[in-house]
Amino acid sequence: MTRFTRADGCPPDMNDDGAVREVLDRISDKWSLLVVGALREGPLRFGELAKTVTGISQRMLTLTVKHLVEDGLISRTAYAEVPPRVEYALTELGKTLLPLVVALAEWAVEHRDEINAHRRR
């Protein structure tokens, strides 16, 4: 059995009870993937994330990290310091997503010119 087959040997149904869609909806938006990618080197503070993930608004970054924390993909650690310091890092579960995010980014870079050529047609 490969990781892309169910226990009964059949491929996963992409619409099976909405389970796949539910997870993909949460992690496949561009901001979530970029935040996961930004955390690949280690923990970052909110401001560092905002600088790394260019183009994201503060509100969208806030919502994105909140959802990723709720899903257990990143952790939020608040330090009792003055001024307060909060860091975000990939959890063990989040680290399992990282190779897929990197592979998708590499694919995008590799095929960017071809895709842009199709768009111009």
What do these coordinates show?
The model has no long low-confidence stretch (mean pLDDT 88). Strand 2 and strand 3 (85-90) form a beta hairpin. Helix 2 (30-38) crosses helix 5. This protein has a three-stranded antiparallel sheet. It has five helices and three strands. The chain has one domain: Winged helix-like DNA-binding domain superfamily/Winged helix DNA-binding domain (Arc Repressor Mutant, subunit A, Orthogonal Bundle). It is mainly alpha-helical and 121 residues long.
Task: Give keywords.
Arc Repressor Mutant, subunit A, 3-stranded antiparallel sheet
Estimated radius of gyration = 17 Å
What is the spatial order of strands in the main beta sheet? 1-3-2
Could you give me the name of the CATH homologous superfamily?
A: Winged helix-like DNA-binding domain superfamily/Winged helix DNA-binding domain
Measured by DSSP, the beta-strand proportion falls in 5-15%
Order of helices and strands: HHEHHEEH
Number of domains: 1
Structural class: mainly alpha
Low-confidence stretches: none
Task: Give the name of the CATH architecture.
Answer: Orthogonal Bundle
The main sheet comes to: 3 strands, antiparallel
The gross shape turns out to be globular
Summarize the structure.
With 121 residues, the protein is mainly alpha-helical. It has helices at 19-27, 30-38, 46-52, 58-70, 92-120; strands spanning 44-45, 74-79, 85-90.
